[in-house]
Each structure stands twice: as structure tokens, then as C-alpha cells.
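worker-03 picked up job from queue 'complexes'. Input manifest follows; three sequence lines, order preserved.
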Amino acid sequence: MSGRAAKPPPAATLRRWEREQAQLKANVVEEDTEEWQKDSSFAGLERVGGVDLSYIKGDDTSACASLVVLSYPALEVLYEDCRMVAVSAPYVAGFLAFREVPFLVEAVQRLQQEEPKLKPQVLLVDGNGLLHPRGFGVACHLGVLTDLPCIGVAKNLLQVDGLVRNELHREQIRSLQREGDTFPLIGTSGRVLGMVLRSYNNSSKPLYISVGHRVCLETAVRLVKSCCRYRIPEPIRQADIRSREYIRTQLCSPLEVISSEPESRKEEAELDD
DNA sequence: GCGACAG
DNA sequence: ATCTTGTCGC
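worker-03 finished. Artifact:
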């Protein structure tokens, strides 16, 4: 139930991965394809999914992959799937999908088979979509493989196409005064790669939203906004909470789990700044 | 050589 | 991603 450290991937593997990204990228749709996406209040949208992987401290190969489905607009959990997985690929910036996506695809397929009526109409993904060195981040990757609308939600800026988190960038972030405020990320190429969003009044740290698949950037930002109770949009936040909790109960003996219950402390805190 | 590097 | 409690503030 444990594993060793992750080895750096050979250059040949990286080249193979790059080719695969280039091939799959041809299938990405950067526009709205669903009726509910065009509605000002997302009428017709009933289920939003969130995915995440949580890892064990010293173990690079054991993780918990989770997929949750929330009702919309109430944001109540309708479905939860947490499962320990054996991660084989190491983390390499720009190739996150090759580490995490296989387990997420499995989770989606499992849901499709066991609870087809709960299949999400859109997926919020930890990480980037088009905001990526080769324009094909994990949100695009998962979107193409599952043919589901996907939105990339990153907690940190991936410096790409001339984008840098310098003083100017920090100043732009400071200019986001209230939740809902945004500014676009425009690369040297002139393309709009994503949007920086202040998602929560109590946190000055923004989110980096980008198109994954079958959704346009404006719709993506609008939907993420409408899913935020705290800084992290609820579907991803629930997937994150549940996957780490799953790991915690896997790691500790039953007695320890009971005695270290987090009950009174965190739960509903998430106040940054 | 130096810095950058989603999760 | 993960290591980590209390604490200051609304």
C-alpha cells in the first residue's frame, strides 16, 4: 500500500507526451455547445461535477481520486466517488494530465455506468485548460477524453506565452477589489488565454480560469462565479475535502481517526488574506 | 549559469 | 500536492 519516489521521466517520454497532447488538442472545442450555457441564469443546468486528487505525504504513488457531483444552483452533493489509486507518472509541470487524468476518466466512466442520471453537465477541473505551454492543460485533456464540457480552475499562475507574475501582475490582482472582479490574461501572441477572478471577498488570492472543452471563457468565468461559496468553487472544494478525508481515514487506525476528528476547528473556515 | 515549474 | 495551531479580525 505504499510506493517509492517518482523518477524523472526520460526525454523520450516527454516527447511522446507532447505528441499526444498535440493530437488530442485538435479535438478541443473552445465554444459553448450546450443550451444552458447561453442562458443568463444557466436554466437547464442541474449538475456540476468537480474532480481532484489528494496525495499522501511521503508517498508519490498513492493518491485518492475523487469525483463529486453537485446540484445546481443549490450546490448540494448528489454523488461522491473516492478511491485509492496507484499513480505511476511523476508530476511534471506542463504534463499534469498524464499523472492524474487516467483516474478521472475512470471515475467518469464508473459514474456513467452506475448512475447515468447523475452524469454532470460540466466538470470543474483543478489546473489549467488553454492556459498551458502547449495550449492543452489537464482541463482540455479530460474534456476531450470524456467529451464533457470542462473548465480549468488553477490556484496559481502558470507563466506561459509571456505571462509573468511580476509587480505589474500583482498590481492587477490588487485592483480586484470585490468578488466577481476579473481581468484577462493576454499572452504575447495577443490571445486571451484565461481570466483572473477574485472569487471571494475574504481572499485577495485569485483564481486562474481557462477554457477546457466545449465552453467559452466568458461562460466558464460566469459559471465558476456562481459556484463559489468560498475561494475555491464548491465542486472542486468538495472533491478536495472528501479525497483528503478519505486518505486520512485510510492512513490512521480506526481509533486514531475518531480521536483526531476535525469537527470543531476548520470545516467552514477557508478565510485567506 | 539562472530562474521557472498547474497539481 | 504535502509539512501544520493558534490566532487575529469581522
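worker-03 released lock.
The helical segments of chain A are 11-25, 35-38, 96-114, 138-146, 167-174, 217-226, 234-251, 254-259.
The radius of gyration of chain A is 18 Å.
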